[in-house]
Amino acid sequence: MFEFQQYLGFLMFLCIFTMGFWLMLFLVNFVFYWVAGASWELWKEKRAAKKLGDQ
Length: 55
Prior knowledge:
This protein is mainly α and 55 residues long. The protein has a domain at 28-55. Helices cover 85% and strands 0% of the residues. It has one helix and no strands.
């Protein structure tokens, strides 16, 4: 009926697509984490500067 060699291209596509998908998710989450951390630190610095100026 079907032999394993007929599925090699499809299996290679699935492997490459899956690796790319998980790599994309990792990189997107890393960028969001980086932006959120930088924003949080900037907000804390502005808040500290405002407190220092009020006193």
